[in-house]
Predict the structure.
Amino acid sequence: MQRELAEEAVTEADRLVKLCAYHTSRASSTRPPTLTSPKGCAGRASGRSNEFIEVRAFPFDEVIRMVERTRSKDSMTIVAVLHAARRRGR
């Protein structure tokens, strides 16, 4: 998962905290994806990515509003944000 974080978000984390595992649909897979939250991001990761991704940071309250206003529509993002918000006491 650290490798995915470095590849997708071009950052590294001191540790990853498991938020949940869930099935994206009833018939999708026998192994559900595990969603994690990075803690202690240290900046840019080393290595190269073969993808062109724009990485932008947002305050967490704004991310919650993005989910509430359906600006974020993919299920993994929605589930991860709602689990992270619950852990923060929102």
Q: What stands out?
A: Residues 29 and 68 are 28 Å apart (CA to CA). The longest helix spans residues 75-87.
